[in-house]
Structure formats: structure tokens, C-alpha cells
Write a structure and sequence with these properties.
Elements: E1 39-41, E2 44-46, H1 53-69, E3 74-78, E4 81-83, E5 94-98, E6 109-111, E7 117-121, H2 127-140, E8 145-152, E9 155-164, E10 169-177, E11 179-182, E12 188-191
Parallel strand pairs: 4-6, 7-8
Antiparallel strand pairs: 1-2, 3-5, 5-7, 8-9, 9-10, 11-12
Length: 202
């Protein structure tokens, strides 16, 4: 396997050719041999680059904290797609959803109305989508809480947004360095420096 990518395509692989008007959200479940973590944005397939160490560690930190601190009716899960509409099925890095949104072990996505919080950890290749396109789409679909996570000197910085339902747009409510402490969507406290706790204090 090539060291440059974490998914090896078959030698005879042919890239999917979109139908007129683009792909639909349900096509992600039936198209053969898609690379892991393929998203659908405006009817186009988006393929993910390999994760960086920062990205992977940040996902683990946030998912674990959100899961551990969630009330009994909510749970955190990572890297599951959300069907926003027929032409958009993005994959947030971390989600908070109701426990009863679980439809079984073969479930591949959540409905937009089930998502309480969507978290995107920004990477070089996803910067424009994570900062602009995806927040707009989450807000339009009614997702009440959104976090954008950026890297600064090796540590996560969390930009927190809350939906203004009157205008279907996000309003920024805070920028969190080193420590994240919130009351919504439920009481949450996260030591953001713990991303590297095995390396000692910064």
C-alpha cells in the first residue's frame, strides 16, 4: 500500500460518473468502492485526505468528553454522515445526537433533525468547507449547535456557535483556548490541553 494514502484503490477502479444533476444523498449507500469518509456536498462527491495527528487526537478528546458528560438521553459519535437534504450528506467529525436516533448496527447516517451538535475540526484540505459551506448548510437544516475547531501551536481552539432560528444562521458565542466550559447543549467542561497530556504540560 502506498504511504501517501490510507486507502488503496483497485487497479481496475473507475471513478463514479455523476448522473445529470449530480448524486443524491442515498447514493452514498449504494455506490461501490467509495473511499472511507466520502461526503456529498451539493450533489458532488468529496473525498477526504488522510488525517493528521492533531486531527485524530482532537477527535478522540472531544468525542470522549462529550460522551462522558452527556445526559442519559444523548450520546456522542464520530464520523457519521448527516442527511441534510437530497443533495447534501456531509460527515461532521463529531456529532451529539439523541440515543433514540439509533436505528440499528447497519445505520449509515442521521437525519438533520436528530443532530444536537455538529463539530468540524479544520484541516488544510477542508478549510473552506468547514469554515463556510458546511456551517451554512447545518444552520439552514436547523442544527442548533456548531463548533469549529482550529489548530493553534498544536492545541485546539474551539469556536462555538448557536443557531438563531429566526434567520436560520449561526451566531458566535465564544472562542475557547485551553479550556472549554459551556452550559449548552448541556453542561460541558473540557481541558483542551489534554490533547497532549502524555507529553506533559505546555
Amino acid at each position: 500500500m502506498s504511504a501517501a494514502r490510507d486507502y488503496e484503490l483497485p487497479e481496475d477502479y473507475e471513478w463514479p460518473r455523476p448522473p445529470a444533476g449530480g448524486w443524491l444523498a442515498d447514493d452514498l449507500d449504494t455506490l461501490p468502492n467509495l473511499p472511507p469518509h466520502t461526503e456529498l456536498i451539493d450533489g458532488s462527491l468529496v473525498f477526504m485526505s488522510p488525517q493528521t495527528r492533531f486531527h485524530s487526537r482532537t477527535l478522540l478528546l472531544l468525542e470522549t468528553a462529550l460522551w462522558d458528560q452527556a445526559p442519559e438521553h444523548l450520546e456522542a459519535i464520530r464520523e457519521m454522515t448527516v442527511k441534510l437534504d437530497d443533495r447534501n450528506r456531509p460527515e461532521p467529525d463529531v456529532l451529539v445526537v439523541p440515543v433514540d436516533a439509533d436505528s440499528g448496527p447497519r445505520q449509515t447516517c442521521f437525519r438533520a433533525e436528530d443532530v444536537v451538535l455538529a463539530v468540524e475540526v479544520v484541516s488544510d484540505e477542508s478549510r473552506d468547507r468547514d469554515r463556510e459551506a458546511k456551517p451554512r448548510k447545518y444552520a439552514a437544516a436547523g442544527v442548533p449547535h456548531f463548533w469549529r475547531v482550529e489548530e493553534n501551536e498544536g492545541l485546539p481552539v474551539v469556536y462555538v456557535y448557536e443557531l438563531d432560528p429566526a434567520i436560520k444562521a449561526y451566531v458566535p458565542t465564544g472562542i475557547h483556548h485551553r479550556t472549554l466550559k459551556l452550559d449548552v447543549p448541556y453542561p460541558i467542561g473540557i481541558d483542551l490541553t489534554a490533547i497532549d497530556r502524555r507529553r506533559g504540560p505546555r
